[in-house]
């Protein structure tokens, strides 16, 4: 390896602010009114209606329950939350009644041709019929405006529909404030199962500038933040059947031992990088963090004893929003997108396309709390999109994919699917200035 | 077996002046009928209800011309859905009495006059102004059906009377007094105890729910074409016809179709006061939800709800709000009249909804509420109605008259036809539809009602769901179709199937046959005897766990085929005296194993065998047609029919054994069971003698068990296919040894087979060699009602492991784990809940659920269970020697106060017996000690109660999360003690792991309830205590809070 001693690169430093939207200060489970849907609907109703009125000028908006009082057959606009009734959706009740079934099959598709669609507002639910709407391309929990008319049997014939759309751009944000620098996105280190130390070492050396030529080092030095987007410890859990308590118990014990070992490994890995670069660590679906349901809270400091001493270390939530060098960066470890794909299991859309749709739906995790576990929010829905992200990513995808989306007002957003590192050995480098991306692979083979 | 019912309904009617029919809503009322001209048009309708009344005779019609006459009324619906009331004139009631042998036609007139005098004298008053009580006396030659007496017919008098109620005095006077002095003769009455409606149906060959056709010129349409008779019903068409002028179609081919009957399902909600079950005198009816469906359609065509006070609108349902309750009730009754339903249904409408509405309306003096039937001026009145039947026990029901409409209460149907753990709508819905039902407590109902239009809508949606559920269940269980087919097969009306016992079905079939063959049915004086005859036999089971295929051979329709094979019947029964008198040869007689004699069918064929042959042939035909049929609706009808035919064939045997019944004949029933016993023994003998190594078979066959109509054979082969082959061979071989139509059939192979005891076994059920059909369990605790769900679930899983995985060790391990889980408090509470209905508060013996109800009442009267509610309870630990009934506790209370569960009680009183029972055949005598006393029972966890005498003196101290040692004061805010510090990370992950599971459960539970209640936005208020999720929800919330506190002890989450 050739090293040019004369050149020295300073690590880029960019401004950083964790917006902390998904931080839970207090966790309570004793309220009956699980009303996140009402909050969601209230947050998005106005914008949805505005767009609906632009789209269909001459129609009147009514509450679902007022529908019967209006003229039958005349078309109206309804606004509510979509609910998809799916037979294949996992049901606790069904699981209980067939406890006997000795093996539980992991189910990656909840969709079937028998699915039915409903629209519901605070007052009532109405069944949506007609072939205008592709039921496979929508999911439970979306706020939506529907144009249509009531049929004699009490169902609602859909003529057209409309989602809240992109977040309206506010004029105050200007791109001139954007700082120069890059961020590196990684996800799915899967330290429990990933035995390939080589690529991990390579990654760590590359970040810290111990590898590569001068040019490479120059590039490396531009990395202002490393964002680790979930599933650092493990990226899957095996589903164990009901049978055999002891079996489950010993499995659990083993899992905990593995977790503890992997946490040490992660701690070592991080503290190595932290010497010279800032790291943001997001927990993932299968990581041992303080909670399982979204939004997941940061790793507990006591589990990362070495890394926690560095100022350059930051524990983040999942999902997470921050302002990095003037760019709004939003992302999750991929759970919401995976869940959407289960609900819309018959659709052929790619994860990236779903990611784009969540922007139009104006919601980061619409399928919660129906199929995606979500902390029981009582008064607000923090997952409603209230900002215009510049960089929007989902971690733990099967493959790398990206797209620059330009919204109506000319504002651009960089969508990124971060691949699982353990499987693809790939990280993604994003330039804050021009929003270009570049995958970087650390395989032991030349690709 | 069944019954001894019989009850004569109080026939007094309450007459008032009903409101005129006015149709205010086109959506509600039926489409108008097409114009009809009786001279040229045919009118066909399916009748659903037949009754009669006493009225004036109509000129031009047969029958008596003077005085009051009975007039039959048939209510039905045409294929277009128009309602019809058909008056049938000229049919008169009659009875038979035996006559002296020298009675001639000349005596008839004098006899008639004498009897007429006597009957008129016997009448204390004559409100109907009957002039001729006796219309005719006719000498006929017939035979009694009871006992063989050669082929000579004997003289009988057929006495026709003016009205049905004169039959009883006629019989009494003739049997007890001397009416006609010309003969000194003891008259005996025949067929005097037959209901007039049944008599009519038999004589005109009308079966229940059949199609009636009125040919052109035979009928008259009221209100048109100069036939200006008064319209007395709310039917669209009222027609008159003579009793011998209409065509009664047998329900076959085209005429097996079903008319589009209107079925109204409804549910009411009442605003009860705290702690008291709603009473009509005090508590208002606040909502009535209605769903109307046409038979044969899949969705209701009308949904509406009547609400007291305002109610926000509901998509798809009409909301009718009223300020005053009395107006709401008045309008509802009006709605029913306009809707003109043929069938009322709902859940418990007979004993709750209808009586409540009627009583409430009476209390509020609602105008015209009671006129709910089809006759304009007859009020619907509540009567108490006791049904005594061996099959169902004594049941007190209310009955309400709705002339022309059939009240079809789903609850009564289910109680009659299905054996379930619980009959609440929740339980039933879960059982048949695998759906839980949202359940709102009375207290909450009142709360929602007192809220605003939105909360009342919430209630209305709930109420509508409760009205819809019975319709879905009716459809799923095909109740209406099965009952209609049963009515057609047995020839009685659908309402007598619901309100009467089994007897009437057989009587109706017997009468139809006796009429054909000139037999008469004697009147049996019902008196119970203690005479017992031996029941069915069982071959002593060779208990054990068989890891070989066990072939099962069944006698198909055993009892009916015995009756047919041996020609057992009333008409073939021979007494020793008669045998001598008629000098009958031995070879013409069958002597049954119970020493009774019956004539062989070469001399005379019995009518019971004939009835059964017809039923079984019809069933075969229905099954064949079912295979051919492609239309799902017709398939349902045929399936309903074959089921009805099977049930009917089996009820014949029961009829002959019912000692309080219409015509018991112990000689028949005792012979049938005696034959059954010997046949099982003989089958065992034949199989074991024939399938032997000497005869070229690989092994000696052994019959390991035999019961009523089946034997289990171990042929010694290891292959299912071989066992099936041998099974078929054995069935054919044994069948050839018996008289036709007795047939032994090979049906299934059990492999493996666990034979626990008499009537208790389990096995994997194979009908084809490659894949099992199901796991079959008989007599095991998988369905018992008074167990907690844990027992049933555990037994099921154990059996699955035993039978499907064939791994006895794993099954034992699993059972041990469950026991260990139980003792360590790891079992979900919902698994331990036992529920019982609170039927009365003063049982002689103290009962757990009654004691608990009293305890709960003291705690909070508002939430305490009321009479008729189901009480859910768990057993909690208490001081030694406390009786079990004092240990019962409200599960929710136990959860919230972490009252420890009496795990020992569950182990010893719930789990132990069934477990030992299934494992004994495998483990032998060690089973009990292995299962109940092993290592796995040594670790126990006992929660500490937060209530109770000692709780006040205790102070909770934090313990180390690792070793559970009490933490010293300086470390109380830490998670672990000094010694466990090194493992802190591991312990922390342990907590996280547990928390993840809890969290996942928590969110899935809420998502489930939101789905079940059918709304994402509304809060979950369900408190369905039959639903496991309800307890899990309560527990999961408590667990979450506790877990978060524990995790907090590891330090704050700050970066």
UniProtKB/TrEMBL annotation, chain A:
Q: Which domain of life is it from?
A: Eukaryota
The GO terms this record gives for MF are: DNA binding
Residues in DNA polymerase alpha/delta/epsilon subunit B domain copies: 183-399
* Keyword Secreted attributed: no
Q: Does the keyword Acetylation apply?
A: no
One of the GO biological process terms = DNA strand elongation involved in DNA replication
The Gene Ontology CC terms held by the record are: delta DNA polymerase complex
Which keywords accompany this UniProt record?
Answer: DNA replication
Where in this chain does the record put each DNA polymerase delta subunit OB-fold domain? 35-161
| Gene3D superfamilies for the chain | 2.40.50.430, 3.60.21.50
Identify its protein family.
Belongs to the DNA polymerase delta/II small subunit family.
Q: What is this protein called?
A: DNA polymerase delta subunit 2
TrEMBL record, chain B:
Q: Where in the cell is it found?
A: Nucleus
Q: Name one GO cellular component term.
A: delta DNA polymerase complex
What the entry lists under SMART domains is as follows: POLBc
* Zinc as UniProt keyword: yes
What sequence ranges are listed for the domain C4-type zinc-finger of DNA polymerase delta?
A: 960-1033
- Per the UniProt entry, what is one GO biological process? nucleotide-excision repair, DNA gap filling
Q: Residue limits of the DNA-directed DNA polymerase family B multifunctional domain?
A: 493-922
Q: Catalytic activity annotated for this protein?
A: DNA(n) + a 2'-deoxyribonucleoside 5'-triphosphate = DNA(n+1) + diphosphate
Q: Which InterPro entries match?
A: DNA-dir_DNA_pol_B, DNA-dir_DNA_pol_B_CS, DNA-dir_DNA_pol_B_exonuc, DNA-dir_DNA_pol_B_multi_dom, DNA/RNA_pol_sf, DNA_pol_B_thumb, DNA_pol_palm_dom_sf, DNA_pol_type-B
Which NCBIfam families does this entry report, sorted A to Z? pol2 (TIGR00592)
Q: Which family does it belong to?
A: Belongs to the DNA polymerase type-B family.
Q: What is this protein called?
A: DNA polymerase
């Amino acid at each position: 390896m050739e090293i040019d001693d004369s050149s020295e690169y300073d690590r880029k430093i960019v401004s950083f602010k964790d917006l902390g939207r998904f931080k839970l200060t207090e966790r309570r489970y004793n309220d009956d009114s699980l009303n996140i849907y009402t909050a969601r609907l209230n947050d998005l109703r106005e914008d949805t209606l505005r767009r609906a009125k632009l789209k269909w000028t001459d129609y009147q908006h009514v509450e679902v329950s007022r529908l019967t009082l209006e003229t039958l057959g005349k078309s109206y606009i309804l606004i509510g939350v979509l609910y998809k009734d799916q037979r294949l959706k996992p049901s606790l009740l069904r699981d209980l009644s067939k406890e006997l079934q000795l093996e539980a099959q992991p189910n990656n598709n909840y969709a079937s041709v028998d699915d039915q669609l409903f629209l519901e507002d605070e007052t009532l639910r109405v069944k949506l019929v007609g072939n205008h709407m592709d039921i496979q391309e929508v999911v439970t929990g979306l706020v939506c405006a529907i144009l249509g008319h009531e049929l004699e049997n009490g169902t609602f014939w859909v003529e057209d529909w409309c989602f809240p759309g992109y977040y309206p751009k506010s004029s105050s944000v200007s791109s001139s404030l954007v700082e120069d620098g890059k961020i590196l996105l990684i996800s799915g280190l899967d330290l429990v199962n990933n035995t390939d130390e080589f690529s991990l070492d390579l990654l760590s050396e590359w970040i810290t500038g111990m590898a590569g030529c001068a040019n490479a080092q120059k590039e490396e030095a531009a990395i202002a933040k490393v964002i680790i987007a979930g599933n650092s410890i493990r990226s899957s859990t095996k589903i164990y059947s009901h049978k055999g308590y002891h079996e489950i118990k010993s499995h659990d014990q083993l899992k905990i031992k593995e977790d503890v070992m992997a946490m040490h490994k992660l701690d070592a890995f991080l503290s190595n990088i932290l010497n010279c670069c800032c790291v943001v660590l997001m927990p993932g679906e299968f990581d041992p963090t303080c909670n399982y349901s979204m939004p997941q809270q940061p790793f507990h400091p006591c589990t990362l004893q070495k890394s926690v001493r560095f100022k350059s270390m930051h524990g983040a939530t999942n999902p997470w929003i921050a302002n990095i060098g003037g760019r709004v960066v939003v992302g999750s470890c991929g759970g919401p997108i995976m869940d959407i794909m289960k609900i819309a299991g018959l659709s052929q859309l790619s994860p990236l396309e779903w990611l784009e749709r969540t922007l139009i739906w104006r919601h980061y995790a619409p399928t919660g709390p129906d199929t995606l576990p979500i902390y029981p929010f009582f008064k607000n829905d923090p997952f409603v999109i209230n900002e215009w992200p510049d960089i929007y990513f989902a971690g733990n995808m099967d493959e790398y994919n990206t797209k620059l989306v330009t919204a109506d007002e000319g504002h651009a957003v960089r969508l990124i699917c971060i691949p699982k590192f353990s499987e693809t050995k790939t990280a993604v480098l994003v330039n804050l200035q021009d929003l270009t991306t570049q995958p970087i692979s650390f395989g032991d083979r030349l690709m | 077996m069944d019954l001894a019912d019989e009850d004569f309904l109080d026939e007094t009617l309450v007459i008032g002046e009903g409101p005129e029919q006015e149709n205010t809503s086109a959506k509600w009322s039926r489409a108008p009928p097409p114009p009809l001209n009786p001279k040229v048009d045919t009118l066909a309708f399916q009748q659903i209800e037949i009754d009669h009344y006493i009225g004036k005779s109509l000129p031009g019609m047969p029958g008596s011309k003077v005085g009051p006459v009975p007039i039959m009324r048939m209510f039905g619906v045409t294929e277009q859905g128009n309602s019809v009331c058909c008056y049938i004139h000229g049919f008169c009631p009659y009875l038979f009495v035996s006559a002296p042998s020298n009675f001639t036609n000349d005596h008839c007139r004098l006899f008639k006059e004498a009897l007429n005098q006597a009957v008129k004298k016997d009448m204390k008053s004559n409100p109907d102004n009957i002039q001729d009580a006796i219309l005719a006396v006719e000498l006929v030659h017939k035979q009694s059906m009871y006992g063989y007496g050669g082929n000579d017919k004997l003289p009988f008098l057929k006495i026709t009377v003016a009205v049905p109620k004169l039959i009883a005095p006629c019989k009494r006077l003739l049997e007890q007094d001397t009416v006609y002095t010309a003969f000194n003769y003891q008259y005996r009455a025949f067929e005097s105890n037959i209901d007039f409606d049944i008599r009519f149906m038999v004589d005109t060959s009308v079966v229940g729910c059949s199609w009636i056709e009125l040919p052109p010129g035979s009928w008259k349409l009221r209100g048109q074409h100069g036939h200006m008779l008064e319209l007395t019903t709310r039917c669209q068409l009222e027609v008159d016809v003579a009793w011998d002028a209409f065509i009664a179609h047998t329900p076959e081919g085209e005429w097996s179709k079903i008319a589009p009957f209107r079925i109204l399902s409804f549910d009411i909600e009442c605003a009860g006061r705290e702690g008291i079950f709603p009473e009509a005198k005090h508590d208002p009816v606040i909502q009535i939800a209605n769903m109307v469906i046409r038979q044969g359609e899949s969705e209701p065509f009308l949904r509406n709800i009547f609400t007291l006070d305002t109610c926000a609108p509901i998509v798809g349902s009409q909301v009718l709000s009223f300020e005053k309750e009395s107006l709401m009730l008045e309008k509802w009754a009006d709605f029913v009249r306009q809707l003109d339903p043929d069938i009322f249904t709902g859940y418990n409408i007979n004993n709750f909804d209808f009586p409540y509405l009627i009583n409430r309306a009476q209390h509020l003096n609602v105008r015209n509420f009671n006129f709910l039937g089809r006759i304009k001026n007859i009020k619907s009145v509540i009567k108490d109605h006791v049904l005594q039947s061996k099959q169902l026990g004594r049941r007190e029901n209310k009955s309400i008259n709705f002339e022309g409409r059939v009240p079809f209460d789903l609850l009564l149907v289910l109680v009659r036809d299905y054996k379930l753990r619980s009959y609440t709508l929740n339980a039933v819905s879960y059982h048949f539809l695998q759906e839980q039902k949202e359940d709102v407590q009375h207290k909450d109902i009142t709360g929602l009602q007192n809220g605003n239009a939105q909360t009342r809508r919430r209630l209305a949606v709930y109420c509508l769901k409760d009205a819809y559920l019975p319709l879905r269940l009716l459809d799923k269980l095909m109740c209406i179709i099965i009952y209609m087919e049963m009515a057609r097969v047995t020839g009685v009306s659908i309402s007598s199937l619901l309100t009467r016992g089994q007897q009437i079905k057989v009587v109706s079939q017997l009468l139809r046959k006796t009429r054909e063959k000139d037999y008469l049915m004697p009147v049996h004086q019902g008196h119970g005897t203690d005479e017992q005859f031996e029941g069915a036999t069982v071959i002593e089971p060779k208990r054990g766990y068989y890891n070989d295929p066990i072939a099962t051979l069944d006698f198909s329709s055993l009892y009916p085929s015995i009756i047919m094979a041996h020609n057992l019947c009333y008409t073939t029964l021979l007494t020793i005296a008669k045998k001598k008198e008629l000098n009958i040869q031995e070879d013409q007689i069958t002597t049954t194993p119970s020493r009774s004699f019956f004539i062989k069918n070469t001399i005379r064929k019995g009518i019971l065998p004939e009835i059964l042959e017809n039923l079984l042939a019809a069933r075969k035909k229905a099954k064949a047609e079912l295979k051919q049929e492609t239309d799902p609706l017709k398939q349902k009808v045929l399936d309903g029919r074959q089921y009805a035919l099977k049930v009917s064939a089996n009820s014949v045997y029961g009829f002959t054994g019912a000692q309080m019944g219409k015509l018991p004949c112990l000689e028949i029933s005792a012979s049938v069971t005696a034959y059954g016993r010997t046949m099982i023994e003989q089958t065992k003998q034949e199989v074991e003698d024939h399938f032997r190594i000497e005869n070229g078979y690989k092994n000696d066959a052994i019959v390991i068990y035999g019961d009523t109509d089946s034997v289990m054979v171990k042929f010694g082969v290891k292959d299912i296919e071989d066992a099936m082959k041998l099974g078929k061979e054995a069935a054919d071989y044994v069948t050839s040894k018996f008289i036709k139509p007795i047939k032994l059939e090979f049906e299934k192979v059990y492999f493996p087979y666990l034979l626990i005891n008499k009537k208790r076994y389990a096995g994997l059920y194979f009908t084809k060699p490659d894949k099992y059909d199901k796991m079959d369990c008989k007599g095991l605790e998988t369905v018992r009602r008074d167990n907690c769900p844990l027992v049933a679930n555990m037994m099921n899983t154990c059996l699955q492991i035993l039978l499907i995985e064939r791994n006895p060790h794993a099954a034992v391990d699993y059972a041990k784990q469950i026991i260990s889980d139980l003792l360590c408090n790891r079992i979900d509470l919902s698994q331990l809940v036992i529920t019982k209905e609170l039927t009365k508060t003063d049982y002689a013996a103290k009962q757990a659920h009654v004691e608990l109800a009293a305890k709960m009442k003291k705690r909070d009267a508002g939430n305490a269970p009321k009479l008729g509610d189901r009480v859910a309870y768990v057993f909690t630990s208490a001081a030694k020697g406390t009786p079990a009934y004092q240990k019962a506790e409200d599960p929710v209370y136990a959860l919230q106060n972490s009252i420890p569960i009496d795990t020992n009680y569950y182990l010893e009183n719930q789990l132990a017996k069934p477990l030992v029972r299934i494992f004994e055949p495998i483990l032998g005598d060690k089973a009990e000690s292995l299962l109940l006393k092993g290592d796995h029972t040594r670790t126990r966890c006992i929660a500490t109660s937060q209530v109770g005498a000692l709780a006040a003196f205790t102070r909770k101290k934090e313990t180390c999360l690792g070793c559970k040692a009490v933490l010293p004061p300086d470390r109380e805010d830490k998670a672990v003690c000094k010694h466990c510090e090194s493992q802190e990370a591991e312990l922390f992950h342990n907590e996280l792991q547990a928390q993840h599971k809890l969290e996942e459960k928590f969110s899935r539970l809420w998502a489930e309830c939101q789905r079940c209640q059918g709304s994402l936005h509304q809060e979950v208020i369900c408190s369905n205590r039959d639903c496991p999720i309800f307890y899990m929800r309560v527990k999961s919330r408590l667990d979450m809070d506790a877990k978060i506190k524990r995790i907090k002890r590891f330090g704050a989450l700050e970066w």
